[in-house]
Design a protein that fits this description.
The complex is a heterodimer of chains A (115) and B (242). Chain A is 65% helix and 0% strand. With 115 residues, chain A is mostly helical. The relative contact order of chain A is 0.13. The chains are: A mainly alpha (115), B mainly alpha (242).
């Protein structure tokens, strides 16, 4: 398979981001760090979707007389949705963490802690 | 122990996903194998894939130059309505979880540069945000980035001045009015055209500001809604007592 110049590095970055996020989720016990790891994994998934829609030599899908080739616009629209939903999830998670900290005085997760 | 297990699982996952990406994911063309674009309105089936239809016909069908905007607001507008609802639910959840009777403001003063600089930057941030969401059908951007830029201007003011606050009642009025405008435009599409969120305004000449039918109207409503929601989330997070 001959990969376009940009596609293979993007796939490697996606795999690296997903692995880093997975490592954080498994090995950390601080809840804030776990949510940061989830955000990193989410970035990896967004990058994966954008990379699948990439066409070699294509530009952003905005009509322009100078370019003939455009990348696939559909994954970009889906990723726009995914970014906004990720932002909402992060905001809600931070609000939950603040109330957790007020009840327990720590962000470490242990058995029997109150939410 | 847990750390080494994490490293081992992450390395395994890395190798696994690299091998999957290289072998299985198709790339290189939007022509693909699915040559069955079905027109949702008259039901005719054309011999082309969905992305190539979007690339070729966006200009004629919606009048927007930016294909991503046309997909987000018009082809998949119902999805965007759900997305706005998710953001609204998150803002409601944040204010529900952090509800407090006695609001306590941040105690520490910011330094001189932040204070004076944020005064200068705020009007430009509002102007840039408005530019981004008004020109959503012509340039990269749209309602969500524009609203975020507006909220970042308010965030800077909240960080610089301990006493600064945005009027929450006005924020919630702006939010509900712009959300209603979105739904009303959708229902007008149902009345005047054939389906929910369909374009009922003349498309105009593509590439000009007054073109693309309902897309700029909906993106202006989304910009106001996202800006006010994110500002209220940021303000709620600031007011927390330690």
């Amino acid at each position: 398979m001959n990969f376009a110049a940009l596609t293979l590095p993007c796939y490697i970055t996606v795999a690296a981001l997903l692995s880093i996020g997975l490592y954080g989720v498994i090995s950390k016990s601080n809840l804030m760090k776990i949510f940061i790891s989830l955000s990193i994994m989410e970035t990896g998934v967004n990058l994966l979707l954008i990379t699948i829609g990439y066409i070699p030599g294509g530009t952003a899908p905005i009509e322009n007389a100078n370019f003939a080739k455009y990348v696939d616009p559909l994954p970009q629209a889906l990723v726009l949705t995914a970014i906004v939903i990720g932002l909402s999830v992060t905001a809600l998670a931070i609000a939950v963490l603040i109330s957790y900290y007020q009840k327990n005085g720590t962000l470490e997760y242990k058995e029997g802690m109150k939410w | 122990m847990r750390r080494y297990a994490g490293i081992a699982v992450a390395l395994l996952f890395f190798a696994f996903s690299i091998s999957i990406f290289i072998q299985l994911i198709p790339y290189d063309s939007y022509e693909g194998s699915a040559y069955h674009y079905k027109n949702p309105i008259n039901g005719s089936v054309a011999n082309e894939s969905v992305p190539s239809h979007y690339i070729k016909e966006t200009r004629n069908e919606t009048g927007a130059v930016n294909a991503v905007t046309a997909i987000v607001v018009e082809y998949r507008g119902f999805d965007t309505l759900g997305e706005v609802t998710v953001l609204f639910t998150a803002a409601t959840g944040v204010s529900f979880l952090l509800y407090q009777l006695h609001k306590k403001m941040q105690r520490r003063e910011a330094n001189l540069i932040t204070k004076e600089g944020s005064k200068i930057v705020l009007p430009f941030a509002l102007l840039t945000g408005a530019y981004i969401f008004i020109h959503g059908h012509l340039t990269p951007g749209g309602g969500f980035p524009g609203g975020s830029v507006i909220a970042s201007g308010f965030l800077l003011m909240l960080l610089a001045y301990p006493k600064f606050f945005v009027n929450e009642k006005r924020l919630s009025y702006i939010e509900s009015i712009s959300g209603s405008i979105f739904v009303i435009i959708g229902l007008l599409g149902l009345l005047l055209a054939t389906s929910f969120l369909q374009n009922f305004i003349p498309v105009g000449k593509p590439g000009y500001l007054f073109s693309a039918g309902i897309i700029p109207l909906i993106y202006i409503a989304i910009g106001f809604k996202v800006g006010s929601e994110l500002s209220s989330i940021v303000q709620k997070l600031k007011e927390v007592e330690e």
